[in-house]
Design a protein that fits this description.
Mean pLDDT: 84
Number of domains: 1
CATH superfamily: K homology (KH) domain
CATH topology: GMP Synthetase, Chain A, domain 3
Shape: globular
CATH architecture: 2-Layer Sandwich
Low-confidence stretches: none
Order of helices and strands: HHEEHHEH
Radius of gyration: 17 Å
Number of helices: 5
Helix content: 55-70%
């Protein structure tokens, strides 16, 4: 039992290290662009884009390439079984999302938007559930 808890703690630390490594790689300008994109995209998705039935789409993080040409938008979807539907829905509506985003963001060129399921969020959720299970058993 003690070994299981130690392994879970190590997994949590590894996930956190990976997330930090992703964030360290971005320059100050990339961070500013990513932050602005995340904020504006969240508003657009919540306000203007109809989510697939009975699902909630949340933008968990945005990363931008060093040349600011590509933005990777990571999402989490509840319930999890709607992830594929939500991802394809957003990918179909990318041009509409770009149209709504362009007037709100004053960039020379708007990065290409690419949507992904946030695997780190899924792993974090599973680790949290496992830790909560351990706590309830003790």
């Amino acid at each position: 039992m003690h070994v299981t808890v130690s392994i879970r703690i190590i997994l949590v630390l590894l996930v956190l290290i990976c997330i930090l490594a992703l964030n360290i790689c971005m320059s100050k300008r990339c961070e500013q662009v990513a932050s602005k994109l995340q904020h504006q995209l969240s508003e657009i998705i919540n306000r203007d884009i109809e989510s697939p039935r009975d699902s909630l789409i949340t933008i968990t993080r945005v990363t931008v390439s060093p040349d600011l040409k590509i933005a990777k938008i990571f999402i989490s979807v509840l319930p999890e079984n709607k992830e594929g539907t939500a991802l394809s829905h957003l990918n179909r509506l990318t041009s509409l999302i770009r149209q709504k985003l362009k007037p709100q963001i004053q960039f020379y060129t708007l990065p290409e938007l690419r949507f992904f399921i946030d695997e780190y969020e899924i792993k974090r959720r599973k680790i949290t559930e496992a830790l909560n299970e351990d706590n309830s058993q003790n």
